[in-house]
Amino acid sequence: MKNSLFRPFLSALLLATPLMLASCDDDKNEPEPEEEEELITTVRYTLTPSGGGPAVTAEYKDLDGSGGNAPTVGTLRLVPNTTYTGTVVFLNETKNPAEDITAEVAAEKDEHLVVYEPNPVGLLTITRTDRDSRNLEVGLATTLRANAAATGSLKITLRHQPGTKNGTAGPGSSDVEATIPVTVQ
Q: Which end of the chain is more exposed for a tag (fewer CB within 10 A), N or C?
């Protein structure tokens, strides 16, 4: 008689246990919601000569993203042996009015790094002049020195480094990468 009363209770308990465990594990197995990546269609780099004079701006614009039409790209035309102060702007021009992504990058500067890579390496000397809360460089503001007369290019990459920023370009992923022709003459 003991077995017959206990058996239905035990069967019900065994059936309910996996359901209870599954409902407890559901919260742990759900992926963390990812931050939605912003679309960046335009990179604009503006340089002002330190000694005065008109600003120089070059723009990389790819409104339909990679794989579609080729981007439109302006050339940076710089004076040899001249120092410039620079600012970079990131835009999403698929929206009207254009969305300025630069403000978001500035607000999240602990998670972003702008990387500047001249080619050839000696073409330009670039120093990032703005810092985040841990005193790591950000790169929205720069000082650029155009060296001897030459031609080449400048690759500007916005790196997204949430929780991994260490002052180098290595960690994280690229939000946008733009290569701009440079003429120093």
A: N
Close Cβ partners of 93 (under 8 Å, ≥ 6 residues apart): 41, 42, 61, 63
Query: Does the residue 133 lie in any domain?
Result: yes
* 48-86 pLDDT tens trace: 999 999 999 999 999 987 778 999 999 999 999 999 999
Residue owning tokens 């359901």: 19
In this structure, which amino acid lies at residue 25? D
Please indicate, yes or no, if residue 36 is contained in any of the structural domains.
Answer: no
Range of the domain at 70: 42-184
